[in-house]
Design a protein that fits this description.
heterodimer, A: mainly beta, 14-stranded antiparallel beta sheet, two-stranded antiparallel ribbon, 5 helices, elongated, B: mainly beta, five-stranded antiparallel beta sheet, 0% helix, 61% strand
Chain lengths: 368, 95
């Protein structure tokens, strides 16, 4: 089993420059003033500088990013419930480089030509979240149901102060519903959220050194190559807010190493010789379109361990190659994030399959 | 109808990109100091909803005060669900 580390996106630190709070004054009492107020026109957040993730064989990333609130509009659902639509714009500039020169397995399942070298990327995205105001009657029902479950739970534990205990728990607000009503968290989320759509584009430049061996002379050489990639994507975060799907189209103009072979010098006298197992010949152009589909899903607690999964399927049109990458997140950072686990990768052209552990990559949705 | 002025103060983590507060069918966004003012009917129970967007694990502290005194259940600190991209919380306010 080969081991690989992919550490592209966990925090090693975060420096917020002018991290301002939301900057719009509410106006008028809600019980008296009809219509939606508190509209915001401009920027919410300052530019943040992130120093992202380090692993011994991982990737270090330095990123600048900024999120601006574009607008908040009135929204009404098909069943006439009122709410608001929050629109945001985000840009991000990032530079990343692998740490160490160990084997790189990150491109096995992702078919990413730029994964193994220095990369500079610029990303722009817009998002739109539709949110509804809660239906008090419906929420009251759930609170009452949660109360029933709470009392049953205490009765099962032969508690003598069930009523007092549950009254105190009820004071926790939504936590009471999430804690005691089966499926309460998903019910509350789906009652408010109508989903989030985010779409954007990314342009990347990569720089990588390819070492190879000449088949005739057995001499080792290397070439530095610059690669380019452009991509556009759209992500849909489902109302439960625990599952998202992303569709992406990419164009890569990059390079890939020649096939590895075992090369040995002529040995007419049958003595002990040194052979080499290296890529043979100069790197080859690797260009064309790729289609990528991925899903991110927070599974929840399984035997007391929080888990998430984010399978990704990539189809390289020009090479007719399929890649599958399946990280399963199992390791919690103790602060509410999942930052490691096991990962399986496979690609159809070489039928190469790898399984290993990864650390440093934080689970999240592309709408975060 | 007597009204009580409730001042809600919000302190979101830097990674939280949007916060608003709502009571019934109205929402407010915090001012530069993180404050939102509601005028609500005295003697009633009101449900304050907090919507925050950000990565799982991001925290948001909320305090609701009347005449400088925190209401029962406040201050409270809430964390965006692990694996979620935003959260909606509510806390009831008895005025």
């Amino acid at each position: 089993m080969k081991r690989f580390l992919h550490a592209a996106s966990a925090f090693a630190g975060l420096i917020a420059l002018p991290a301002t709070a939301d900057a719009q004054q509410g106006e008028g009492p809600p019980v008296e003033t009809p219509g939606v107020s508190g509209r915001a026109d401009q920027s919410d957040k300052g530019i943040s500088v992130e120093f992202l993730a380090i692993g011994s064989d991982g990737v270090a990333t330095l990123a600048l990013q900024n999120t601006n609130l574009l607008d908040v509009d009135d929204y009404e659902s098909t069943d006439r419930r009122k709410g608001r639509e929050v629109k945001k714009f985000n840009w991000r500039v990032a530079a990343s480089a692998p740490i160490g020169d160990g084997d790189d397995f990150t491109d096995i399942g992702t078919l990413d030509s730029l994964a193994s070298g220095f990369k500079f990327e610029v990303n722009f995205s817009k998002s739109s979240s539709k949110l509804l105001f809660a239906d008090d009657d419906k929420v009251n029902e759930w609170v009452a149901e949660a109360q029933t479950y709470c009392l049953k739970s205490r009765a099962a534990q032969r508690s003598t102060n069930a009523a007092t205990f549950c009254a105190n728990e009820r004071a926790l607000g939504d936590v009471f519903v999430r804690r005691y009503l089966p499926g309460g968290a998903a019910k509350l989320n789906s009652h408010i959220h109508q989903g989030t759509l985010k779409y954007g584009a990314t342009a990347s430049v990569g720089y990588d050194e390819f070492s190879y061996r000449d088949a005739a002379t057995l001499l080792e050489s290397s070439e530095n190559k610059i690669s380019f990639e452009g991509s556009a994507y759209a992500t849909w975060l489902f109302p439960s807010s625990f599952t998202s799907i992303t569709g992406q189209v990419k164009y890569q103009y990059g390079y890939k190493p020649g096939d590895s072979q075992i090369l040995c010098p002529p040995n007419p006298t049958n003595i002990v010789i040194q052979c080499f197992n290296d890529p043979v010949g100069a790197p080859m152009k690797n260009k064309g379109f790729q289609f990528v589909a991925d899903m991110r899903h927070y599974i929840g607690s399984v035997f007391g361990t929080p888990m998430a999964i984010s399978p990704q399927l990539t189809y390289d049109v020009s090479d007719d190659v399929v890649g599958i990458d399946v990280p399963l997140y199992l390791v919690s950072d103790g602060e509410g994030g999942l930052t490691g686990g096991v990962r399986a990768g496979w690609r159809s052209d070489t039928d190469k399959f790898v399984v290993g552990i990864f650390v440093g990559t934080r689970f999240g949705h592309k709408t975060d | 109808m007597a009204l009580t002025t409730v001042i809600v103060n919000v302190k979101p983590d830097d990674s939280i990109t949007y916060v608003d507060l709502s009571v019934r069918n109205e929402y407010r966004r915090p001012d530069g100091n993180g404050n939102v003012t509601f005028q609500l009917q005295t003697g009633k129970r009101h449900r304050l909803w907090i919507h925050a967007t950000g990565p799982g694990g991001a925290n948001c502290e909320i305090d609701a005060q009347v005449n400088g005194t925190s209401l029962d259940g406040f201050p409270t600190k809430r964390m965006i669900d692990q694996g979620a991209s935003g959260s909606d919380w509510f806390q009831e306010m008895q005025l």
